[in-house]
Write a structure and sequence with these properties.
single chain; 212 residues; alpha/beta; Rossmann fold; 7 strands; 33% helix
């Protein structure tokens, strides 16, 4: 994999903040999340202010790394809709949420309908079984090691597409484990919500040859 010239993380690019209408959608999403969280375990931290910072703001910051244009996006293992439903509400872009847990998929379906997110499609399937359009970007949060995520991204992304994967303390260890199996261009960005996190933006993803 191509490496940065030094080990420092780049700052996230600036992005226009959501307007008042989209901020209201995110508040409506939070209310739905809290209501459903009392019935099924969507997020571990149930305090509204914790969810706003640790989950919603953490997801929202990924919008600055999305490619320009209006190509479709996908969130793999979407769970509570973090980051996929948050990004859909904040940007209005076409979003595919892949979630095999039927209860979580039911939450995503209701949330998308109640928020009026007509460009959101829920896929209640395993990622391997999902048929999606060629994607401009794919993301996943707290789903799987980077090596496994790259396999999904390589299959689903359009030729110029990017994978946006936030990672915690294990970021560099996961990158090192993936390096023998994958080639890609890797950019690293500092999270604004977690000082120990790295956000990878990966492009030109392809398997390493057996001889590599």
């Amino acid at each position: 994999m191509k490496q940065p010239t030094d080990s420092r993380l780049a700052p996230l690019p600036d992005a226009p903040p959501p307007d008042a209408a989209r901020l209201a959608l995110l508040e409506d999403y939070l209310a739905l999340l809290l209501r459903w969280n009392s019935r099924i375990n969507l997020v571990a931290d149930a305090a509204p202010e914790v969810i706003r910072q640790r989950h919603i703001a953490d997801s929202l910051q990924l919008a600055s790394l999305l490619p320009a244009g209006d190509g479709p996006l996908a969130d793999l293992g979407a769970g509570a809709g973090l980051p996929g439903l948050v990004l859909a509400a904040a940007t209005g872009r076409e979003m595919h949420l892949v979630e095999s847990d039927r209860r979580k998929a039911a939450f995503l379906t209701e949330a998308a309908a109640r928020l009026g997110l007509k460009r959101v499609t829920i896929h209640p399937l395993r990622i391997e079984d999902a048929t999606l359009p060629p994607l401009a970007a794919v993301t996943a949060r707290a789903l799987a090691p980077l090596d496994r995520l790259l396999a999904h991204a390589a299959r689903l992304l359009a030729p110029e597409g990017v994978a946006i994967f936030p990672k915690g303390r294990t970021a560099e260890a996961e990158m090192a484990a993936a390096r023998p199996h994958w080639h890609c261009h890797a950019e690293r960005f500092a999270s604004r919500t977690d000082p120990e996190a790295t956000i990878f933006r990966l492009s030109d993803i392809r398997r390493a040859s057996p001889e590599a």
